[in-house]
Each structure stands twice: as structure tokens, then as C-alpha cells.
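Feature request, filed as a ticket because there's no other form

It would be nice if the structure record came with a short human-readable summary line next to the C-alpha cells. Right now we just get the raw output. Example of a typical job, pasted below so the devs can see what we mean:
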Amino acid sequence: MTEIQKGKYLFGTVKIGERGQIVIPKEARDVFNLKSGDNLLLVGDEEKGIAIVKADLMKDIALKLLENMNNVTDIVHSDKKIE
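Raw output as currently delivered:
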């Protein structure tokens, strides 16, 4: 593991197995407090690549988004433009 910048790490490479599985290096599991049974969310962008995020962190973001849904709905259904 190499910390390339404060809080930014390079953990090395992983290999995709025959069943499409990867092993998350121990160092990465330790840094991000990943445990057996944790749910992870895999997201991707065809140009930028793949990211793996703890599902509970995304749950918190989704809840905050839903709390503000009225504001989003008002903007979408009005003539206002988001800049």
C-alpha cells in the first residue's frame, strides 16, 4: 500500500477470478473498515472507470437526497435552470 497523497492510496492490483470475483487487499479492508458480510455498491462510468463504495455510506447520501426531494421536484417542474 502506498499513500500517494493524504487520504489517497494505491493498494496495488487485483485479479478477476474465473467467477468474476476480486479480493480486496487487507490493507484496503483495514483502511476502510471493511468486514466480511459488508454490503458494497459497485458504480461505473464508461469513461472514468469503476468505484466501490460501502452501501451504508450511499444510504446516508440517498436519505439526504430524499429529505431535499421537494426542492429538487420544484426545480424540475419549474422554468428554473440548474447552473
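Something like this underneath would help us a lot:
The two ends are 39 Å apart (CA to CA).
Strands lie at 2-5, 8-10, 40-45, 49-54.
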